[in-house]
Amino acid sequence: MAGKIVILSSEGSTGRTLLAWKLFLTISSRREKMVHLLGYDLQKPDLLPVLDAKDIKTSDIHIQVPRVDKDRCRFCGACITACDCGALHIDRSIPALVTDPEKCEACGDCEAGCNLNGISYKQRISGQILHYHQDNFQISIGTADEREEFLLPLICSLNRMVNTEHISICDTGPGMGGDVLTTLRDADFAIILVNPEENWHRKLLPLTDNLREKNIKYGLLVNKHRKESGFIEEVEDTCLRESIPFLGAIPFDTQFEKLEKTFDQKANDPEMESIFAAVWDRISLVVS
User: What angle separates helix 16-30 from helix 270-287, to the nearest 10 degrees?
Assistant: First the structure.
């Protein structure tokens, strides 16, 4: 199989990054397909420790940030019509033309759509992509500069690195903001991590509603399970009732906690390795 697989969760500290890393190691060890691990969590790039510093290639990502000339703008709305991202709106209380960083991809359509030459672009570096490549795998991790608001151009740069002939494992930030929605473009499957807690199903609704709207297949995976009574059965019942693939459960113990902190590629726990291998086998069945 090949395809883009995105790991999601409703909140932070759910284990998305470790799952991405362990699935990546599982797939690459089988040497059946080129596998690409991509880090889309730009403001908290927890995947950075997995890179070998001496072999990293770093690319600065330059973006064109739109700037509105207040003397020329007549609030006609032509740029808003031209913007397919829906990133512009008029705040009539100021008045001002406002750009939403959560939606703007710095594509240039607004500049082209302005008949009064009222929009120009200021170039700046918004962040970097760190890239590492070996025989049958590659790793690409995005990092945003501190206080950078315009994250989507970096996300789009990572998206352009995805090869549809490869298996791409994508580690994202939490929730369903503009950065995650952009990451989901052309995704073939999404893994939603579920941690044992109350109201878990309600917290997932923004994720599942968006995935259904985008017609992206997804499955639920219980993570950091400490043998809470009846929780796995509750998730399995929900999956059965709503026709959602149940991808398994990953226990949380001292060995798991150590892996989450160190990302030790050489750590060898046969039981843990078999758990992640089983998760990947279930995903392969659903996606293929």
Answer: 80
